[in-house]
Specification:
The structure holds two protein chains of two kinds.
Chain A: H1 3-43, E1 69-70, H2 76-79, H3 93-123, H4 131-153, H5 159-175, H6 191-228, H7 243-275, H8 284-302, H9 311-333
Chain B: H1 12-18, H2 28-43, H3 46-65, H4 73-82, H5 86-92, H6 102-132, E1 147-154, H7 157-170, E2 177-182, E3 188-194, H8 196-222, E4 224-231, E5 235-238, E6 246-249, E7 261-272, E8 278-289, E9 299-303, E10 309-311, E11 314-330, E12 336-340, E13 344-345, E14 352-358, H9 366-371, E15 373-381, E16 384-387, E17 390-393, E18 402-410, H10 427-431, E19 435-443, E20 448-450, E21 456-472, H11 476-495, E22 499-507, E23 517-526, H12 533-545
Antiparallel strand pairs in B: 1-23, 2-3, 3-22, 4-6, 4-21, 5-7, 7-8, 8-9, 10-11, 11-12, 11-21, 13-14, 14-15, 15-18, 16-17, 18-19, 20-21, 22-23
The chains are: A mainly alpha, B alpha+beta.
C-alpha cells in the first residue's frame, strides 16, 4: 500500500466512525420522539383506535364456509382487542400520534442498525466490543422486537412503557458509556466475542420487552381488581391491553429469548474454557448470569403451576430483567471480575 | 384465563388424589410410611421445586456480591480486614466460599432429588403414551372444549372417519397419532394427538441438567489447575504438583497419575497501541510429552490468549505476562552471581513490584550466613518515569527500563516455617531490626550500587516472563454433551406444541329428509400453550369438509355456544 492509500483508508474509517456517531444520535432522537408521541397517544381522550378492533371471528379461507367459535380470550392474537370499539368515524389525535410513534420508532431502529454497521466498519470488528456498543445493540434488538410485536399483536398502547427503557438506555449509552471506536485487547480478540456477546445482547433486548409486558400485566391486573371494586372507571390504565394479551407477549418473547440466553451462557462457558482454562469459575458475571437463568427458568415453570401463574410469574420475569440490568451495569462497573471490559477506564 | 390442562403441570392436588390414603387401622409403621410418602410427594411437587429454584438463585447471590476465596484470595482477605465485625461472621457462614458451602450444596441436592423424583414417573408415563397413542374415547360434550365447531356434510360416517384419519396422519412432521372408535349410539369418533416430542424435549432438558451437575461434580473432584511463571529462556516440566507455583487439585486427584510434559519458553512478544493498550500477546514455546520426554524432540508452537495448547487431556494456557529484571552481584571475595526474579505487575503500564532474595551469599557460613542474607526490593518500570521521587511506568514496552530498589542485609526470616511471598520481604523482620536497609538507588541497565563491604549490585537488564496454566478436567466433554442436549431439549419443549383434536361423526337428525347428511362435531384442546391453535384448528375442521362427498350446495350449519 502506498502512503496515499493508507491515508484514504484512514479517512474512510474516520468517516464511518463519524457517521456511526451521528446515526446513533439520530436513533436516540427517534426513540425519544417515539416516547413523546406514545405519551400523547396514551393520555389522549380518544385513545381507543378503531383500526385495532378487528373482526372477532378469525376468517379462514381454507375452511370455506365453516364457521368457528373460538372462546373469548383464547386467541387474542387473532381476536383483536377486548376494548369496546370507539367511534370509528375518523382517527383522533391519539391514533395519529400512536401511528407516528411507531413510524418514528422504526426510523430510530433503522438509524440504530446503521450506527452499528458503520461502527463495525470504523473499528473493523464486530460492533459489540464495549458497553456503549452492547447497550446500543440491545436497544436496537428491543426496538426491533417491539416493532414486530406491535405489528402482530396490536399492543401499541404499551408503547410508552416499551420506549421508556429503550430511550433511557440509549441515552445512557450515548453519554455515560460512550467510547470512541477502537481496537480490542487480546483477551477479546476471539470469534467467541461475535457469538457470545451477540447472543447475550439479542436475548437481553428481547427480555426487555418481556419485562415491560410483565410489568404492565401487573399494573393492569391491579387496575382490574380496583375496577372490580367499583373504582378507577375513568383511569388511563383502562387503555392498557388485557392481561391475557400482555401475558402472551411476555411468554412468547421469553420462549424465544430463554433458549437464546441459555445458548449465550453456554457460548460464554466455551469461550471461558479457551481463554481462562475452565468453562465455569464462579466469576461474578457468571454467577449473576446463572441467577438470571434460574429466574427465567422459574418464570416459565411458574406460568404452568397453579398458584404461581399470573402476577407471581410476572414478578419473577421482572426480577429476571432486573438481574440482567444488574449484570450489565453493576457487575461490569462496580464489582471487579474477569469480565471488566466496560472500556471506560 | 381459560382453565389449563392439568396434565402439563405437576399438580400436588392431582398427586394426592391419585393415591388413596392408607387403611384405617394405622400402626406406627404405617404412620411413618405415610409421613415419608407425604414428605416425598411434597418434595417432588412443582411448588417445592420452584421454591428450591429461587432458593438456589438467592443462595448464589452472595457469590456475585462478595469476594470469594476461590476467585480472589487477596481481595477476600482485604474485605475481612476492612469489615472487622461482620467479616469473620460472613466467613464462618461460608459466604466467601458460597459454592462449596454445605447450605448451598443442600439446596441444589434437594432440587435435583426433587427433579429426579418428578421426572422418573413422568418418563414412564410418556413412554406409555407414545406406545399406546391417544385414547379413543372423546369427551361427551365436545362443545365444552376451548375450540369447537360443527359442520354438516353428506357422506358415509365410517368413510369420512377414515378420510379424516388418513389426512391427519399425512400432515407432515410431528404428525398426529390417531384412534378411531364407534360409540354405542352409532357415532364414529376419531381422536388424535400430536406433539409428543414436546414432552420428550422437556424430559431431555431436565435429565441433561442432572448430567451437567454430575459432570461439574466429577470435574471438580478429579480435575486440577496449576499455574507457573516462566521467564524467557527457562522452562518447566510438569510431572507433579511441585512443578507449579500454585496448584489447585480436586479432592480426589491422584498426583502420581498426572500427565508429564515439558515446556520451554523461547520468547514472548507483545504489541501495544500508542496509548499503551495491548493488541497482541504471543509466547513462542517448545513442548514435549509422551515418548518425546527425555529426548531432544520438541514441538514448536505459538501460545496465545484464547488459543490454548491441548494435548492428551490437559490444556496449557497463556494467562498473563510481566517482567523479570536481572541483576549481577559481585561479592567482596570476587565471586560473581546473576539473579533473575519475576516482578508482579501492578498497573496497566506494568509498573511492577518484587524482591530478589539472596539466602546464601558466598563468604559466610553457619549463623553468619543467616545474618548476612541480601534482599533487593522495589519497583521495576519498563519505561521509567520518576515523578516526585517515585518511579512508575509510562508505557508497557521496555523502552527505557529502570528499577528503584532498596537493598537490605540481615535475616530474611525464611526459616520460620511461614511461607513468604516471592514478590516481597517479610516486613516484620525489618520492624524487629533483623533486616537493615543498606542502600537505595534508581538504576538504569548497566548502572550499579556498591555497599559498604564492597558488594557491588548491577542492574543488568530485563527479560519477560509468562504466566502459564495447566488445566485438567476429565468430565469437560460430558458437560459439553449435556449442554447441547439441554439446549435441544429446551427448544423442543418450548417451541413444539402439544395438541388434541376429536371428531364425532354422526348422521344429522336435524337435516330431516336429506339422505346421507352427517354432522361432524370437532373439538380441540391445546395441552400446552394455547397461542396459535385457533388458526390451526380451523384447518383441522377443514379436513372433514375437504372430503369429496361434501355437497357443494350445502350450507353448513353454524353451531356451538354463542352462535
Amino acid at each position: 500500500m502506498t502512503m496515499a492509500d493508507v491515508e484514504s483508508v484512514a479517512v474512510v474509517w474516520q468517516l464511518a466512525s463519524r457517521v456511526s456517531d451521528l446515526t446513533f444520535e439520530g436513533a436516540l432522537a427517534g426513540y425519544v420522539t417515539a416516547l413523546a408521541c406514545h405519551a400523547v397517544e396514551f393520555a389522549s381522550r380518544r385513545a381507543v383506535p378503531s383500526a385495532e378492533v378487528s373482526a372477532a371471528v378469525p376468517a379462514n379461507a381454507a375452511a370455506g364456509a365453516v364457521a368457528l367459535l373460538t372462546r373469548q380470550g383464547e386467541d387474542p392474537a387473532d381476536a383483536g382487542q377486548d376494548e369496546a370499539p370507539g367511534s370509528a368515524a375518523r382517527p383522533g389525535w391519539g391514533e395519529r400520534f400512536g401511528k407516528a410513534a411507531v413510524l418514528v420508532a422504526g426510523i430510530g431502529f433503522t438509524m440504530n442498525v446503521l450506527s452499528l454497521i458503520t461502527r463495525g466498519m470504523a473499528a473493523h470488528r464486530a460492533p459489540w466490543g464495549n458497553m456503549y456498543e452492547i447497550v446500543s445493540l440491545m436497544c436496537a434488538v428491543a426496538a426491533g422486537a417491539w416493532l414486530v410485536a406491535v405489528n402482530r399483536a396490536k399492543v401499541r398502547r404499551i408503547g410508552l412503557f416499551v420506549m421508556f427503557p429503550i430511550a433511557v438506555l440509549s441515552f445512557v449509552a450515548g453519554t455515560v458509556l460512550y467510547t470512541p471506536a477502537g481496537s480490542l485487547v487480546p483477551a477479546l480478540q476471539s470469534y467467541w466475542l461475535v457469538v457470545h456477546v451477540l447472543a447475550v445482547a439479542i436475548s437481553s433486548g428481547m427480555l426487555m420487552l418481556c419485562g415491560v409486558a410483565s410489568a404492565m400485566y401487573i399494573v393492569r391486573t391491579r387496575y382490574d381488581l380496583r375496577r372490580g371494586r367499583g373504582a378507577g372507571a375513568r383511569s388511563l390504565l383502562a387503555r392498557l391491553p388485557s392481561p391475557d394479551v400482555l401475558d402472551r407477549i411476555a411468554y412468547r418473547t421469553a420462549i424465544v429469548a430463554f433458549p437464546l440466553f441459555t445458548f449465550a451462557v453456554v457460548a460464554g462457558a466455551l469461550w471461558a474454557e479457551a481463554a481462562w482454562g475452565r468453562y465455569w469459575g464462579w466469576d461474578p458475571k457468571e454467577t449473576t448470569a446463572l441467577i438470571t437463568w434460574i429466574l427465567y427458568a422459574g418464570y416459565l415453570h411458574a406460568r404452568a403451576t397453579s398458584g404461581w401463574r399470573g402476577s407471581r410469574a410476572a414478578w419473577i420475569s421482572i426480577l429476571g430483567f432486573a438481574s440482567i440490568m444488574f449484570n450489565l451495569f453493576v457487575v461490569n462497573m462496580v464489582v471487579s471480575g474477569l469480565h471488566s471490559y466496560a472500556g471506560l477506564n | 384465563m381459560p382453565p389449563r390442562d392439568s396434565i402439563t403441570a405437576r399438580n400436588d392436588e392431582d398427586l394426592l388424589q391419585n393415591h388413596p390414603s392408607p387403611g384405617k387401622s394405622r400402626g406406627p409403621l404405617a404412620v411413618g410410611v405415610a409421613m415419608l410418602r407425604n414428605l416425598w410427594r411434597r418434595l417432588t411437587s412443582m411448588r417445592t421445586a420452584l421454591v428450591l429454584l429461587f432458593l438456589l438463585a438467592l443462595a448464589s447471590l452472595p457469590g456475585a456480591l462478595l469476594p470469594q476465596w476461590s476467585t480472589g484470595r487477596a481481595k477476600t482477605a482485604q474485605y475481612i480486614l476492612d469489615h472487622p465485625t461482620i467479616g469473620p461472621w460472613l466467613n464462618r457462614l461460608g459466604l466467601f466460599n458460597v459454592f462449596s458451602a454445605p447450605w448451598f450444596a443442600a439446596v441444589y441436592l434437594l432440587l435435583f432429588i426433587s427433579l429426579i423424583g418428578c421426572l422418573t414417573p413422568r418418563s414412564w408415563e410418556l413412554l406409555r403414551q407414545i406406545r399406546t397413542g391417544p385414547p379413543a374415547t372423546a369427551p361427551r360434550n365436545l362443545s365444552r372444549l376451548p375450540h369447537h365447531a360443527t359442520v354438516t356434510i353428506t357422506g358415509d360416517a365410517a368413510e369420512t372417519a377414515r378420510h379424516v384419519r388418513d389426512r391427519l396422519r399425512q400432515s407432515g412432521v410431528g404428525g398426529w397419532r390417531t384412534a378411531t372408535r364407534t360409540e354405542p349410539d352409532g357415532a364414529v369418533v376419531v381422536a388424535a394427538e400430536k406433539g409428543y416430542l414436546r414432552d420428550v424435549g422437556n424430559l431431555v432438558f431436565h435429565f441433561s441438567l442432572v448430567g451437567l451437575l454430575l459432570s461439574v461434580a466429577v470435574g471438580g473432584m478429579f480435575g486440577y489447575e496449576g499455574t507457573v511463571l516462566v521467564t524467557e529462556g527457562d522452562g518447566f516440566c510438569a510431572s507433579s504438583p511441585i512443578a507449579y507455583d500454585d496448584f489447585r487439585p480436586g479432592p480426589l486427584v491422584n498426583a502420581t497419575t498426572m500427565t508429564p510434559f515439558c515446556v520451554d519458553v523461547d520468547a514472548f512478544h507483545a504489541a501495544y497501541t500508542p496509548q499503551g493498550q495491548a493488541t497482541t500477546f504471543r509466547a513462542d514455546i517448545r513442548f514435549q510429552d509422551g515418548a518425546d520426554l527425555g529426548t531432544d524432540t520438541w514441538q514448536r508452537r505459538a501460545l496465545q490468549v484464547n488459543d490454548p495448547l491441548r494435548f492428551s487431556g490437559d490444556r496449557l494456557y497463556l494467562l498473563g505476562h510481566g517482567y523479570t529484571p536481572t541483576f549481577r552481584i559481585t561479592y567482596p571475595d570476587g565471586q560473581v552471581r546473576t539473579y533473575a526474579q519475576p516482578f508482579a505487575p501492578e498497573d496497566s503500564m506494568f509498573t511492577s513490584q518484587g524482591a530478589i532474595k539472596v539466602t546464601d551469599p558466598p563468604g559466610y557460613s553457619g549463623d553468619d550466613l543467616r545474618q548476612n542474607q541480601l534482599a533487593i526490593v522495589g519497583i521495576f518500570a519498563p519505561t521509567a518515569v520518576v515523578t516526585g521521587g517515585i518511579m512508575s511506568s509510562g508505557f508497557p514496552s521496555p523502552l527505557d527500563p529502570g528499577v528503584a530498589v532498596d537493598v537490605y542485609r540481615g535475616d530474611l526470616g525464611m526459616g520460620s516455617g511461614i511461607p513468604q511471598s516471592v514478590f516481597a520481604i517479610d516486613t516484620a523482620q525489618v520492624a524487629n531490626g533483623s533486616l537493615v536497609k543498606k542502600a537505595h538507588a534508581n538504576l538504569s541497565p548497566g548502572q550499579s550500587i556498591t555497599l559498604g563491604d564492597g558488594t557491588k549490585i548491577t542492574f543488568t537488564g530485563v527479560k519477560q516472563f509468562v504466566s502459564l496454566q495447566t488445566s485438567y478436567d476429565p468430565a469437560q466433554d460430558w458437560a459439553l454433551i449435556s449442554v447441547i442436549l439441554l439446549i435441544a431439549g429446551l427448544m423442543g419443549s418450548l417451541l413444539i406444541k402439544r395438541r388434541r383434536v376429536w371428531y364425532r361423526i354422526r348422521s344429522d337428525s336435524t337435516a330431516a329428509g336429506r339422505a346421507g347428511a352427517l354432522a361432524v362435531e370437532v373439538g380441540g384442546l391445546a395441552r400446552t400453550d394455547q397461542a396459535g391453535y385457533g388458526r390451526e384448528f380451523a384447518s383441522l375442521v377443514g379436513l372433514a369438509c375437504s372430503h369429496k362427498t361434501y355437497a357443494a350446495g350445502d350450507s353448513p350449519a353454524r353451531a356451538g355456544k354463542g352462535a
